[in-house]
Amino acid sequence: MNKKVENINTGHQIPSSGVRGLGRLTVVGAGPGDVELITLKAIKAIASANVILYDALINEELLNYASAETELIFVGKRKGCYAFQQAQINELIVAKAKEKGHVVRLKGGDPFVFGRGAEEIEYAQKFGLETFVVPGISSAIAVPAYQGIPLTKRGVAESFWVITATTKAHQLSEDVAIAAKSTATVVILMGMHKLDDIVHIFSVENKQNTAVAIIQEGTTENEKVGFGTIATITKVVEEKQLTAPAIIVIGDVVKERVKLTSVFEEVNQNLCL
Predict the structure, then answer these.
(1) Is the pLDDT of residue 33 over 90?
(2) List 100, 107, 110, 190, catalytic entry
(3) Domains in the chain, CATH or no CATH each
């Protein structure tokens, strides 16, 4: 069921439904998982799409904002199995844009934070497509926040790193070792399969007592979390059976976690949205 989207002037305008032969691509960040962590501009883009290519980590409730005539195509990865390889996705974007008009590429989190959004835009531009981007709320920031973890706090952490544990060559990023030498908060994405390596690197830097949080499927109803230190986190993961997708937060800010209540949720239920 398509939900009504008001025609609000927001400055940078989302393209309307495309005209056959005029290809358009809008790369849209779907946020970290909570269906309400989505921008108005993203909803307008979804509502105006002729085709939506969506990833595995998006909340599929967002597809309810699409028109009943919109073609929906899953192009994500589940349990290591790709529905489409990246080159195939690039080609599909161009083909569908030329065929039907406006293609929305719907990605989890923010499409420019380890989302390959820039790569897809660059490819589309080679074929003369109009290109747009709608930033999303990155899981690197939102997921710790939902657990009350501030990534920076005066007197505790002056900066934070956001690192993907897995490089294009499927190796552990060398930036992890560099980050381990700093006093900054370190947020590691796609790192569960390399947790032992990460623990070893921080241990070499005598960070055994540094606090760690691992948050699985953050901001969703399936969220699970484990807290420990570099010395204990592997055992915590085993006991709580934490798996990917998960975010690893390393730093003293984990000990600064604030207790949150459900007051906002209770108030929100009484609002007319």
Answers:
(1) yes
(2) 190
(3) 24-137 (3.40.1010.10), 140-256 (3.30.950.10)
